[in-house]
Amino acid sequence: MRSQRVGPSHGAGRVVGILAISLALLGAGCSRDPDVLKKKYFDKGTSYFEAGKYAEASIEFENALQVDSHYAAAHYQFAQCLLKTGQLSRAYRELVVATTLDPTNAHAQTDLASLLLAGGRVVDARSHAQAALDSDPQNVQAQIILSQADAGSGSLPAGTSEAQRAIELDPGHVAPYLNLASIQERAGDLAAAEQTYLKAISVDSKSAAATMGLGEFYLRRKRLPEAEAQFKTAIVLDPKSAGPPSALAGLYLAEGQKDAAESVMRTAKGELSGQPDGYRVLGDFYLTEGDIPKAAAEFASLYSAHPADAGVAKTYAAILLLQNRIDEAVQVDNAMLRISPGDVDAHVLQGEILARQGKTAEATHVLEGAVKDAPDNAAGHYQLGLAYAANFNSAQAQSEWALAAKLRPDMLEPQQALAALAERQGDFSSVATIATRIIKTQPRSPDGYLIRASALLQKGDQSGAEADLKSAATLAPNDPRPLTAMGALRGLQERADDAAKLYKQALNLDPSSAEALTGLVNLDIAQNQPAKALSLVQNQIARIPDSSKFYLVLGQVELRNQSPDKAEAAFEKATELDANNVPAFILLASLQASRGSIDEAIAGYQRGIRANPRDLRLYIALGGLCEAQGHWQQAESTYQQALQIKPDYPVAANNLAYLMLEHDGNVSLALSLAQTARRGLPDLPNSADTLGWAYYRQGVYNAAIDLLQEATKENPKDATYHYHLGMAYVKSNDTDMADKQFQVALQIDPNSPYAEEMRKALAQ
Questions:
Q1: What residues contact residue 565 under an 8 Å CB cut-off, 6+ apart?
Q2: For 666, phi and psi rounded to 5 degrees?
Q3: pLDDT interval class at 32 (50, 70, 90)
Q4: Which of 37, 83, 370, 439 has a CA positioned 20 to 30 A from the CA of residue 257?
Q5: Concatenated DSSP letters of 253-316
Q6: Which long-range contacts (CB under 8 A, 24 or more apart) does 525-531 make?
Q7: Within 10 A of 599 (CB to CB), how many other CB atoms are there?
Q8: pTM confidence score
Q9: What integer pLDDT is reported at residue 232 of this predicted model?
Q10: Residue 300: what pLDDT?
Q11: 716 Cβ neighbours under 8 A, 6+ residues apart
Q12: Long-range contacts of range 31-35, CB-CB < 8 Å, 24 or more positions apart?
């Protein structure tokens, strides 16, 4: 046997190797300990957060949550990052999770209550504020939210009492005093409110917030010199805040000093260029003023300089959509999704873009996914409602808008959509109810009053409408809409001079207001002054040369002046400036057809359809032109395209049914289409005639006679209706009634296409 020798060095090496492996395994075991690993990510995220690196911090907190999805502290800190970067919807979801996992986290409860209060959900806000106070009875911010929730729900005495409790908790800071003052002001106790604002300043004379509070109080009371002094003081006290210069600019706008306001914001942007709410103040100012071209230029510059700023990117994309610059908006949104694939707001924007591109099925899919991931996202539900509406699904659209309004009672767009839907349905009582709800949630906005005034006018209540319009004008003295609406009311009251003054005031406030210009033009035409109307429109176009709506008005005036060539040029320009100006496309093609340029007119309609593939007006107009030219196959195809977009669209169904009946089409299908048309247009004699003729072709003569009698009664001057009724009587063996209908038809139109047939019948 061979002897084996193990030397000491070999043995020592083996021991060292085993020890090294053991230590390595031990180290690996520590790094894989979930508690250790998540804490490592959390601590790193906290360091980034404290350094102001919120994007980096978000990544670390998300890493921690990958390790432990029930890590309440990480959910809360991730929510803080989202709040800092303006991602409120995602922050809300994280705060909901954080407070569910750890109801005793008073800070999380307070932040969630604050978001809920901002969204108008006062009952839920109060609940979470109370939960915060249960865990931390000295939580002043929660106490303030509690008072605001009580006041917001209409319980002003309770709100006042809770606000005074907040002062007792923290008498050395200004926030509780400012809160009490705002509630006192809401309750109408203006003297007490002013004294409380002054008390806040006495507590901390260097507080810009207290100075701003008093200045805004003075601004609301129209004490402009006093307000200006406070705002200027606040700028000195807090030179790094965007709030004071924004308030000062707003005051100058109220005084009609637009240049001074713009100068203030331009200066503020330069001095605050190192912070997000500072470098975007000028762009936000342009947006508030409705100066979209300047806002677009400013945010284009900001986006170039700060492409990772989600707030800037989203605002810029929204502006691009306003300008119909869809392709550029797509690029911005795609960049946002690359940076943050889970950004629900970016997905909502993606859905909106798809809808604007006419891809409503894709838009619906994207938006349904967005609201599934973020069921609290009011903007997502609103956009989903628009997508459903684009697919002519009014019931689902209404449901989504109602949900958006419930989630965000302060969000105007869903309420406006609900009001518009009710108006289309002729339900003006519901319109007034929705408007009253808007007034309650946004008492300082003119929109609720404007909507309610329109509803009251439809119901014949001119005095009520006038009261609401005056309220809107008081709330928004620089908004042209109340003046334009009041001008229309004065026109109804045959007070032309007063109406003209109001329209001119509106145009002075907003030289781009097509509504105000149209009102003035209509007054001139009603007074048989077409030359004056033409001059007015031309002057306004000289001021706003890129307004598609102005060229539409110009074309209509040129038509009234018997200048079809000039009108055609104006309509052409309107479509070039805005490919979504559907009335301009229709009027342009109508003019081209009237001068015999049928191919050009058809091409014009087709160009309009390519730009507006879901606007049914263009299909109906094109189908009608094809019918008039005898191109019935092309007309049928056009109506079929319209029905592919909206299967129950009654006008297309009616016209297609009639063509099929006239050209030996499928009678059963034609009858079904005619029934669809009749359901959608129950009061239209044309639909009664089409359905009656379909019954005639099916051999159901009694039903045909009933409908055709209705058609001739509603429109006794249509020879075709009388011919159809006569034929139904022939089949029912009532020759006397048939003779009568044929005679009437021939009297109306001796050259009817059916004249020879009717004369033969009469001769027999």
A1: none
A2: -70, 110
A3: low
A4: 439
A5: HHTT-HHHHHHHHHHHHHHTTTSHHHHTHHHHHHHHHT-HHHHHHHHHHHHHH-TT-HHHHHHH
A6: 525/557, 525/560, 526/496, 527/496, 530/557, 530/560, 530/561, 531/561
A7: 11
A8: 0.69
A9: 94
A10: 94
A11: 744
A12: 34/67, 34/68
Classify residue 751 by burial, with Cβ atoms within 10 Å: 0-12, 13-18, 19+.
Answer: exposed
pLDDT (0 to 100) of residue 708: 95
Strands (E), 709-756: none
As a whole number of angstroms, the distance between CA 223 and CA 110 comes to 35
Identify the CA nearest to 151 among candidates 142, 139, 163. Answer: 163
Q: What pLDDT digit, counting tens, does each position of 585-643 carry?
A: 999 999 999 999 999 999 999 999 999 888 999 999 999 999 999 999 999 999 999 99
CB of 730 closer than 8 Å to CB of 717: no
CA–CA dist 462, 494 (Å, integer)? 13
Torsion of CA 87, 89, 91, 96, to 10 degrees: 180
The residues, any chain, with a CB within 8 Å of residue 86's CB and separated by 6 or more, are: 310, 311
Q: What 3 state SS string does 627-650 have?
A: HHCCCHHHHHHHHHHHHHHCCCCH
- CA pair distance 647, 653, nearest whole angstrom: 8
The CA distance from 418 to 386, in Å, is 11
Q: 411-475 is classed in which CATH architecture?
A: Alpha Horseshoe (1.25)
Phi, psi of 590 (to 5 degrees): -65, -40
Retrieve residue 531's tokens: 């030359």
Looking at beta carbons, which pairs linking 643-648 to residues 24 or more positions away fall under 8 Å?
645/392, 645/613, 645/614, 645/616, 645/619, 646/392, 646/616, 648/392, 648/676, 648/679, 648/680
Helices (H) and strands (E) counted in the chain, each on its own, are 45, 0
Tokens at 31, concatenated: 């790094």
Distance from C-alpha of 205 to C-alpha of 63, rounded to nearest angstrom: 45
Average pLDDT taken over every residue of the chain: 89
**Interior angle at CA 691, CA 686 and CA 695, nearest 5:** 145
Can you give the three-state secondary structure of 434-469, one letter per residue? HHHHHHHHCCCCCHHHHHHHHHHHHCCCHHHHHHHH
How much helix, strand and coil, in percent to the nearest 5, is found in the chain? 80, 0, 20
Say yes or no to pLDDT of 543 above 50. yes
482-516 per-position pLDDT tens digit: 999 999 999 999 999 999 999 999 999 889 899 99
Q: Is 203 exposed, middle or buried (0-12, 13-18, 19+ CB in 10 A)?
A: middle
Q: What six digits make up the tokens of 659?
A: 């063509």
Give the Cβ contact number of residue 369 at 10 Å: 15
Q: Are 665 and 671 in contact (CB under 8 A)?
A: no
Report the residue count for the chain.
764
Domain extents for the chain? 225-289, 411-475
| Tokens read off for 316 | 């810029």
Rg (CA), the chain: 34
Here the contacts of 459-463 (C-beta below 8 Å, separation 24 or greater) are: 459/428, 459/429, 459/432, 462/489, 462/492, 462/493
**Considering only CA atoms, which of 623, 612, 615, 688 is closest in space to residue 646?**
615
